[in-house]
Specification:
Helices cover 1% and strands 39% of the residues. By secondary structure, the protein is an all-beta fold. The N terminus is likely disordered.
Length: 801
């Protein structure tokens, strides 16, 4: 295949105007790489730049992006076995540079942009080498003895490898837009930019390459190492075929199977070939894996070619799976699953009963292509083989008729799923140009460009985490004006502040109750007026006085800020009139009301869709914080200011499932005393911006992966099986993966370390075995807000983190 690369198109897919049409897949099992030995010296041995987009495949091993080597001189950039990035320069047999990133890079669902720049003519050692990841300079530590004006062999007359090193250690993943710039140290803004929504996207490089520079695109499938810089510096390929030119790119990110969302009673299957081939091990137990995409709405098509190990024919569960199902459980306890097994189609429902469907006549064997067409809006999955849809009458996905495996619940998030038994194998085809058969009319490939357009392109326009240092200045002397620094700014209506480096209370202020009116999430105390607290909601942040909970000199603080309505209105939808500040776009409502002491009373929230989470606090006297969470349900009581698990209750409880206009409360003192005044923070789920769900812990440092459909900026998590605290994570502390800093919403404790989480392009991965966030067998609830959506029609694919 030959693609027309470097097109300057509209916003669709790229979200920035520049579209990349293909990438090169490097499978380490194939010993795949590109290589070239330059004929002579380059332009300037002291300077050079490498810019490349990378999508990772396998994790946890040394993998080279590039390596240049002769007898005594080496320069390389690689992923280390602990998934950090390492850079090494050896000159004359001596190590002159050996540095590594502080951050780890384990996101396999999207693309990273790496820019490595070296210029030894720079005056300071730290300026002589720099690595940028997605437009942000990476923190590097290690040994740096690069001499001033020291000559390097980055693009000199030595052997240059892409995808391996001289010792034969190979990359597993995808590379795209590989620019090698000889003799120039260039900034990442030559190759990418932050678009209007704050997403790093590729742009066309229009500069020069130097004598030994090159531009590898994979544009010609018959010559994947062809140089398009104009220099004719073509690379020779080894272990690569035309099938390794793929249309999974930084501007049209495609679904793969997910090595972070893997496990089962039979252990872990093996993923290869860009995480598109899944192979079981010798275990007789199921080995489960989900895809990197979830289907909430729309029509989707993909294929899988099946290969048996010869002894366990047709032993492969394959189909779709509810993304809330614990991946490491057996299929029979899965929340919802459909698949084919021993030639019969099965559906496993929420009660763990097995519904057998023989009427489809499903059988499959070696070499068969299994077809999947899923209509998420109708909740139907059609199953086919080798171009024929199964069932009697035969299914017709395009018409929405005929037999389907099972009608699945709508409104859920269904992911491609596979569970091999022993050494059975499946090869997935999510990309349209790899399909053997034609998708039914109206059904699309699982690419970010085909996802629905998100309601919110830029999460920072509605939610932000801001870190600041106190100055101890009183309001009379100007106070401390805290400004938002992310892509967008807004006037917040709800601000939650916690000092990070001391045991100090959480302080919550909102525009409906008014400035200086403080509540504390860590206790049941009544509302307090704090003159030196938060004194104004500003156009791009807020101002605080000298109170120690807000602004101790040299104290470090975090502030979580939400945009509601920037104004209030009376809402008479329910039995109890409320005063609301509501934002229907972001699904946030802040409201106050006076109780009437009666049971089953409704309150209007103004969101227009049913909320998934509500947190209520009595203001006029002591009272516990009363949450509602969709995964907990009604007539249950637990407290934000307590470690206690939910218990059955009808007084201090939410008495009916919320509707698009109202929610219902009991008559308890904490939620509806006849003389009580209350505030409630009400949240609806907005696809691509917020998610309120649950997951089951496994007690392992390789914890569960939770799909959100966005890159999280904030998470609040609670174990509801075993008594434990509420823990808060955000993308600003420490600002890179692993995110290891947690704060407890129910305690005054300072920030805790070693609370490992990976915040990823499409969700989060629990990396700790702590009982608060990953107790084995326990259910944990969470609420999360987005930094950026995963993708969508007309918006950029969010880079990996």
């Amino acid at each position: 295949m030959v693609f027309n690369n470097n097109l300057l198109l509209g916003a669709a897919g790229a979200g920035g105007g520049y579209t990349i049409d293909q990438s090169i897949r490097f499978n380490d099992d194939d010993s795949a790489y590109l290589t070239k030995t330059f004929a002579g010296a380059g332009d300037d041995a002291t300077a050079g730049t490498v810019s490349v987009w990378v999508k990772r495949g396998n994790l946890g091993s040394i993998q080279y992006i590039f390596a240049n080597a002769d007898t005594n001189n080496t320069v390389y950039l690689r992923f280390e076995s602990n998934d950090i990035i390492g850079i090494v320069v050896n000159n004359g047999g001596a190590t002159k540079l050996s540095v590594q990133t502080t951050a780890v890079y384990r996101d396999v669902s999207s693309w990273y942009h790496l820019v490595f720049q070296v210029d030894t003519s720079q005056g300071s050692a730290s300026a002589r080498r720099t690595l940028w990841v997605n437009g942000v300079e990476a923190s590097l530590s290690g040994t740096d003895n690069l001499g001033l004006d020291e000559a390097l062999d980055l693009f000199q007359n030595n052997q240059h490898y892409i995808g391996r090193d001289a010792a034969g250690r190979y990359l597993d993943g995808y590379l795209s837009e590989y620019n090698g710039i000889d003799g120039q140290a260039l900034a990442p803004t030559e190759f990418g930019k932050f678009n209007n929504y704050g997403v790093w996207v590729p742009i066309e490089y229009t500069g020069t390459y130097g004598t030994n520079g090159f531009y590898i695109t994979g544009e010609d499938s018959a010559d994947l190492g062809a140089d398009y810089s104009g220099n004719g510096n073509d690379f020779t390929s080894s272990g690569l075929t035309s099938d390794d030119q793929v249309t999974d790119t930084p501007t049209a990110n495609s679904c793969t199977m997910n090595p972070l969302d893997i496990g089962g009673p039979g252990g872990n299957p093996t993923l290869s070939d860009g995480n598109l081939v899944i192979t079981g091990n010798t275990s007789a137990g199921n080995q489960n894996c989900r895809g990197t995409f979830a289907m909430t709405t729309g029509k989707w098509y993909w294929e899988m070619a099946y290969t048996s190990d010869g002894t366990q024919a047709k032993r492969m569960l394959v189909g779709i799976c509810d993304n809330t199902a614990p991946i490491y459980y057996t299929y029979s306890t899965r929340t919802a699953f459909v698949g084919a097994y021993d030639g019969v189609a099965y559906h496993y429902d929420a009660s763990s009963s097995i519904v057998e469907t023989n009427s489809l006549g499903v059988t499959f064997g070696n070499g068969d292509h299994i077809m999947f067409a899923f209509d998420a809006d109708a909740g139907k999955l059609w199953f086919g083989k080798n171009g024929t849809w199964m069932g009697s009458p035969a299914g017709d996905p395009a018409a929405g008729t005929g037999a389907s495996l099972e009608s699945m619940p709508t409104g859920e998030r269904w992911q491609p799923f596979c569970s091999p038994w022993r050494l059975n194998q499946g090869t997935f085809y999510f990309l349209e140009d790899t399909w053997t058969y034609t998708a039914p009319t109206g059904f699309n490939a699982l690419s970010t460009a085909n996802l629905p357009t998100p309601t919110i392109d830029d999460g920072s326009a509605y939610f932000q985490t801001t870190l600041y240092t106190g100055n101890g200045t009183a309001i009379g002397s100007g106070g401390n004006a805290v400004s938002q620094i992310e892509n967008s700014t807004f006037q917040p209506d709800f601000v939650w502040i916690k000092r990070r480096n001391a045991s100090v209370e959480h302080v919550l202020t909102d525009a409906v109750r008014g400035v200086t009116e403080e509540l504390n999430s860590n206790d049941n105390t009544l509302e307090e007026t704090v003159a030196e607290g938060l004194t104004s909601f500003d156009s791009s942040g807020f101002t605080v006085g000298s109170d120690g909970s807000y602004n101790t000199n040299t104290g470090t603080y975090v502030a979580w800020q939400w945009l509601a309505g920037n104004g209030t209105a009376s809402n008479e939808d329910g039995d109890i009139t409320s005063t609301v500040s509501v934002n229907t776009t972001s699904g946030v409502s802040v409201l106050t009301y006076s109780g009437n002491g009666s049971d089953n009373q409704t309150i209007g929230h103004g969101l227009g869709i049913a909320p998934k989470m509500i947190i209520t606090k009595r203001r006029d006297t002591t009272g516990n914080w009363i949450p509602y969470h969709d995964a907990v349900g009604i007539n249950k009581t637990f407290y934000l200011n307590s470690t206690a698990i939910p218990v059955t209750d009808t007084a201090d409880a939410y008495r009916a499932v919320p509707t698009s206009s109202v929610y219902t409360i009991g008559a308890g003192n904490n939620i509806n005393n006849s003389s009580g005044t209350y505030v409630a923070y009400v949240f609806a789920e907005i696809e691509g911006f917020s998610k309120f769900g649950s997951y089951n812990g496994n007690g392992s440092t390789f914890g569960p992966f939770i799909w959100c459909g966005f890159r999280p900026a904030f998470m609040l998590i609670k174990n509801i099986t075993v008594a434990s605290s509420w823990e808060i994570f955000d993308s600003e502390r420490p600002g890179y993966n692993e995110t290891d800093l947690g704060l407890y919403a129910d305690l005054t404790s300072p920030e805790y370390s070693a609370r490992y989480m990976d915040l990823l392009s499409n969700g989060f991965k629990v990396r700790n075995a702590n009982g608060i966030t990953n107790y084995n067998g326990a259910t944990h609830i969470f609420m999360a807000f987005a930094e950026h959506p995963f993708g969508g029609d007309g918006v950029a694919s969010v880079p990996a983190r």
